[in-house]
Write a structure and sequence with these properties.
The complex is a heterodimer.
Chain A (H helix, E strand, L loop, with lengths): L1 E12 L2 E12 L3 E6 L5 H9 L6 E5 L8 E4 L11 H6 L10 H14 L15 H13 L5 E5 L7 H16 L3 E5 L3 H7 L2 E6 L2 E7 H4 L2 H8 L5
Parallel strand pairs in A: 3-7, 3-8, 5-6, 6-7
Antiparallel strand pairs in A: 1-2, 1-4, 8-9
Helix pairs in contact in A: 3-4, 4-5
Chain B lengths: L2 H21 L15 H40 L11 H14 L9 H21 L5 H24 L4 H12 L7 H20 L1 H7 L3 H6 L4 H23 L5 H9 L7 H25 L8 H23 L5
Helix pairs in contact in B: 1-2, 1-12, 2-7, 2-10, 2-11, 2-12, 3-4, 3-5, 3-10, 4-5, 4-10, 7-10, 8-12, 11-12
Classes of the chains: A alpha/beta, B mainly alpha.
């Protein structure tokens, strides 16, 4: 099982392509990072994989064409209402048909335990920390047990300990045989936690492969123009 | 019984109490007890109670439900607790269209002409606001667009008034605009019902979309919600409910703002649960306001719309100040 990108292109305006000819095979059971400069098209690529926008050319082959097959954790966005933790996580089940209340309750309880937030279940999200909120958001993306998990900069704005806890949870998902793709800015996290990496530069795949084979000072200099990796 | 069911039952009970109480209140001093009197007086009482007061009460309950529901839905759609059909010009859009219908005599074609015009006007106002500001716009832009639409509609209404054929027409239109249930009968309920039922169904159908929007547009889209389609559904639902309410009673502002705010703590801030609960609480509030204007010793009866604005204006300022202090609204 894998996620396949075949010559995917995307443009908001015809003369300004954001992504050009992206082809990639993203394996299940691997934690795959997408890295690149700001504006290189990382989030756009995530949106295409998540089905939020459609490619202007090429195609994306998902394990299942159903939306119910994707768990998406977006860039840090503050929820507009102060829901309870349980209600927030349960939103992840809206895309699932045939889930009755008991099953839903059970799944939410399980996934809250999984992300170490069982103690927050009844708490309002207005009263929890940014790190806890991000764990709940991840729980929401995992609750429906989708085959593909996407996380767009899930560690932004988190301290070191919480960064680690989010990465560990994503790692677990990959180890359980899911397709897990994560956009990261912190290359240390990529090195520590990820198996594969797709490097974007100006909307194209600059390089892709195993983290331990391609992520080195040379690549960082070429892509980010800095020499202190 | 869950908390949700319990508080909805309480609201429904409150509506029933207000209905029973309301049917006994009126300028003629007739109460349910008069039904037991001798035959002619009982017949007279029955006419007052069941043909004058009861329709007025039902209409107040339905209009309240429509306004509460519309307020909850628009706040969910814009993800902002300061949104309200009145503030955003959706009500004035409906009112301006209704005034045009009255002024040019379209309203006389058919009893549904007025609500249809008002619904269309509300829809157009909403469309223009979202078109000017864009649905992703910060709330300040949306409110500013709403102000622009409101002033334009105000201009249209003023124009119609200043060219009114005679003082009576002028008075009729301006009284109608103030928002009132005086003299409303069964006919008005029939005018309101189709728009209300269709609009409410559309808004309730959107509850999952509104819930998913809590986490942002991308998350909602990633769960398979099509923004274009869902927004259209909410938009039409809002136009139908607000427009048909405006058509039968004129503008009653602030109900859609206050009610969701009061109800939110009881539904754990969930925008989906908020819909039905706001509808029920809206009924209560408007019934209460309509009873108040009848028992208040103000000589000529106050208009419900004026009372709502008198109470709602300060409340809106309070909300605004609270939010500015908290600093989380002006993104």
């Amino acid at each position: 099982m894998a996620l396949k990108l075949e010559q995917v292109s995307f443009a908001y305006r015809a003369d300004e392509p954001v992504l050009r000819d992206i082809s990639s095979l993203i394996h299940a059971g691997k934690l795959t990072a997408i890295i690149g400069e700001n504006g290189s098209g990382k989030s756009t690529l995530m949106n295409l994989i998540a089905g939020i926008s459609k490619p202007t050319a090429g195609r994306i082959v998902r394990p299942s064409s159903d939306f119910a097959s994707i768990g998406y954790l977006g860039q840090n966005e503050q929820p507009s209402w102060a829901l309870s933790a349980t209600d927030l996580v349960a939103i992840g089940l809206l895309s699932q048909r045939n889930v009755d209340q008991n099953q839903a309750h059970q799944r939410v309880t399980q996934v809250l335990e999984q992300v170490d937030c069982a103690h927050l279940a009844q708490r309002s999200i207005a009263q929890i920390s940014a790190g806890e909120l991000q764990r709940l958001q991840l729980a929401r993306a995992l609750v429906a047990e989708q085959a593909v998990i996407l996380a767009d900069e899930p560690t932004a704005a988190l301290d070191l300990r919480h960064q680690g806890s989010i990465m560990r949870l994503l790692r677990e998902q990959a180890d359980n045989g899911k397709v897990v793709v994560v956009v990261l800015h912190d290359l240390q996290l990529v090195q520590t936690w990820c198996d594969d990496v797709v490097v974007l530069k100006a909307g194209r795949v600059h390089q892709q492969g195993r983290v331990d084979e391609i992520l080195n000072a040379d690549l960082v200099r070429q892509v980010f123009g800095v020499s202190d990796f | 019984m869950t908390n949700l069911t319990r508080h909805r039952l309480v609201l429904a009970g409150l509506i029933a109490v207000l209905l029973v109480f309301g049917v006994n209140v009126g300028s003629s001093g007739i109460t349910l007890l008069d039904l037991r009197a001798e035959s002619t007086q009982a017949e007279f009482a029955a006419v007052i109670l069941f043909e004058i007061r009861l329709p007025r009460l039902f209409l107040a309950a339905l209009v309240g439900a429509a306004l509460g529901l519309a307020g909850a839905a628009i706040q969910g759609l814009l993800r902002n607790p300061l949104a309200e059909p009145g503030i955003l010009g959706v009500s004035s859009g409906g009112a301006a269209a209704a005034v045009i219908a009255l002024y040019f005599g379209f309203a006389a074609w058919h009893s549904f002409a007025l609500p249809v015009f008002a619904m269309f006007g509300s829809g157009l106002a909403l469309f223009v606001i979202l078109w000017i500001a864009g649905i992703k716009a910060p709330v300040t832009s949306i409110i500013l667009a709403g102000i622009a639409v409101t002033s334009f509609c105000g201009g249209v209404i003023a124009l119609a008034l200043s060219f009114a054929a005679n003082p009576f027409a002028f008075q009729e239109i301006s009284y109608w605009l103030l928002g009132s249930f005086v003299g409303r009968d069964l006919q008005h309920i029939y005018m309101l019902l189709p728009g209300f039922i269709m609009g409410a169904s559309l808004l309730l159908y959107s509850r999952h979309y509104l819930l998913s929007l809590t986490l942002g547009e991308n998350v909602a889209a990633s769960m398979g919600f099509s923004h274009r389609r869902q927004r259209l559904v909410v938009l039409i639902g809002l136009a139908l409910t607000t427009g048909s309410a405006v058509a039968v009673t004129g503008i009653i502002g602030f109900v859609g703002l206050i009610v969701p705010h009061i109800v939110r703590p009881f539904v754990r801030n969930r925008p989906d649960y908020l819909l039905v609960s706001s509808a029920l609480a809206g009924s209560c509030l408007v019934l209460l306001l309509d009873l108040l204007v009848q028992v208040l010793p103000t000589g000529p009866e106050l208009q419900v719309g004026s009372l709502a604005a008198l109470l709602g204006g300060p409340f809106f300022l309070f909300l605004l100040m609270k939010n500015i202090v908290r600093g989380d609204i002006w993104r």
